[in-house]
Amino acid sequence: MPELPVFPPTVSPEAKPFWDATAEGKILLPKCNDCGTVIWYPRTTCPECMSSDVSWFEASGRGTIYSFAVVRRNGGPWRDALPYVLAYVELEEGPRILTNIVDTIDLECGQSVEAVFADTGEGNALVRFKTV
Fold this sequence. Notes:
Layout: H1 16-22, E1 28-32, E2 54-58, E3 62-71, E4 84-91, E5 96-101, E6 112-119, E7 125-131
Antiparallel strand pairs: 1-2, 3-4, 3-6, 4-5, 6-7
């Protein structure tokens, strides 16, 4: 598989703990201490119960492919990475995140994956996944 481009994210104050953890090869997720909802995308207020009692915990980095598409045509900086996979991965902890699968295009929904991290060179990394 060709290497995917790595562009640094725009880091909001609410998501800073998530992005800081990626530099260490970890996924931190926010969780509501009132209703137990694991929150994605990181924010300071629970989207389920509107509580601001939110804390962070380390996720396993494992999940399953919920949905995916193999991109075979694209321009710009992604052109040299063709074909590549854009996928929703459902983490063991519950949230589904939009990401890339980096090791194969031969995939199935429900397939197990684990996180890998692509260093941006700016103190954080992009979370991508490989099959297990």
